[in-house]
Amino acid sequence: MLFMRLKVALLLLPIVSGGVKVGDKAPEFSLKNVDGKQVSLSDYAKEKGVILIFTCNHCPYAKAYEDRIIALHKEMASKGFPVVAINPNAPEIEPEDSYAEMQKRARAKNYPFPYLVDETQEVARAYGATKTPHVFLLKNKGDFFEVAYMGAIDDSPQAPAKVQRRYVAEAIQALLEGKPVPLSETKARRDTQRRRNASLQSDRVRRPESHYCISAASDYQACSQVPQKTSRRRWRFLCSRSVYHGATHSRSDSSKAGGLRGNRPAQSSFEPIFLM
Questions:
Q1: Which of 18, 78, 220, 266 is the most exposed place for a label (fewest CB within 10 A)?
Q2: Between residues 48 and 2, which one has the greater pLDDT?
Q3: Assigned CATH topology for domain 30-176
Q4: Confidence of residue 97 (pLDDT cuts 50, 70, 90)
Q5: What pLDDT, on a 0 to 100 scale, did the predictor assign at position 167?
Q6: Confidence (pLDDT) at 180
Q7: What b/e sequence results for 136-151 when a residue is b if at least 16 CB atoms lie within 10 Å of its CB, and e otherwise?
Q8: Domain locations in the chain as residue ranges
Q9: How far apart are CA 253 and CA 221, in angstroms?
Q10: CA proximity to 54, closest of 78, 87, 32
Q11: Is there a contact between 194 and 223 (Cβ–Cβ < 8 Å)?
């Protein structure tokens, strides 16, 4: 009996693969921009670096940072660090994050940077992005880009007037001066966000903060099919109560045992962790 319990416990441990650390080589990508053209990381080989930001249309935190991201690009592009924005969200779950809505948003706000769609979420998984906005500052090392900073844009998610630390700007300034980045990793956060790839501190999984806004891709089959006798509003609420540890938050229905059960996608190394 003890062996069986231990076996079950091991099977339920979160398995996290993918995601980068500061100092790692940045994963290459080639994604479609809102203008229909493909944009690759290698396109920026002549730049000093890239401010890669995973963001989206619907997330309130992404909206709160939108003008700051535009200003950041205008400030830093001339210094060799342009912004590249990526939306990894699934439109099946968040219609506001569809490609057509991305195009409308980019036109309405006159984005001066590319706004790319990560339809399969492979790029988000490769970097370990779990929130929006989630920044990865990449430094050009000649033959490749290296992750120099990852985390939040600044220390005030909701109120631009209350910003005291501009993490990305500080990191870029240090790189330009040939100095070590003073703070190389922060939490893309509000309050109690745990670091990417961190193991769970207890058996209880806390409810994700409201800015865990990366929704599961369609290949996860999460939330895209509403069970019978369940309203779409209720199903979306249930979908907001679990998190793919180190990846994305997702759900799948199970009529048995009266609860939600994980639907692990094929060829994936992420185990779902559910908030019951």
A1: 266
A2: 48
A3: Glutaredoxin (3.40.30)
A4: very high
A5: 97
A6: 95
A7: bbbbbeeeebbbbbbb
A8: 30-176, 218-274
A9: 10
A10: 87
A11: no
